[in-house]
TrEMBL record:
Residues 49-100, 135-184 are annotated as: Disordered. Residues 1-22 form the signal peptide. Keywords: Signal. This is Uncharacterized protein. Residues 58-72 have a biased composition (Low complexity).
Length: 199
């Protein structure tokens, strides 16, 4: 008998690239223009692999061999053998989970011009991002086998004798697998721009 406990695998990845915050209080700009330039570029490459496995188990009964030989005059011989039965396989649960969160190029800009300025407020945002996610999640509790043992039989008699040989193979065992659950959660937020202007 083989019994395997549950396996739970979690992979979590958080990628945050290029956050920018700007607070401008132009109280003494003498009515001139306000110019804000933000330039963000990001490259994010995620390669995540998780696997939970309680399978690939095997149980096999023993082999049996029977041989009867009667060589004397009018002699008899009897032989029997039986192969062993396969065992019982019971696996636990296999749970695998992957979580990937990308929050790339977040800009939070606040401009407060409470001086009565007449100039222009210019906000120039240039965001560029490349995000690649390669996520593999696998849970496996299968590929199990439980088989009975093999058997072979051979009988030989001469000079009027009688030989009997019996060989029986074993029965296959029982296989009971647990649950296999696989979950992937990939979230990507790119180029979030928040601009507040108060004048």
């Amino acid at each position: 008998m083989k019994k395997f406990s549950a396996i739970f695998v979690i992979a979590a990845l958080l990628a945050v690239a290029s956050p920018a915050s700007a607070f401008v209080f132009p109280s003494n700009n003498n009515g001139g223009d306000i110019n804000i330039t933000v330039d963000n570029h990001a490259y994010v490459d995620n390669d995540v692999s998780t696997k939970a496995d309680t399978g690939d188990n095997s149980s096999r009964g023993g082999s049996a061999k029977s041989r009867a030989s009667a060589s004397g005059w009018f002699s008899d011989a009897t032989s029997s053998a039986r192969g062993g039965n396969g065992g019982r396989i019971e696996t636990g649960n296999a749970d695998s989970s992957s979580t990937v969160l990308n929050d790339v190029n977040v800009n939070d800009i606040s401009v407060e011009a409470d001086c009565g300025c007449k100039g222009d407020i210019n906000v120039d945002l240039d965001n560029g991002a490349v995000v690649k996610n390669d996520v593999s999640t696998k849970a496996d509790s299968g590929d199990n086998s439980s088989t009975g043992g093999r058997s072979r039989s051979k009988a030989r008699a001469s000079h009027g004798g009688d030989a009997t040989s019996t060989s029986t193979g074993g029965n296959g065992g029982e296989v009971e697998t647990g649950n296999a659950d696989s979950v992937s959660d990939v979230r990507t937020y790119v180029n979030t721009n928040i601009v507040r202007v108060v004048r």
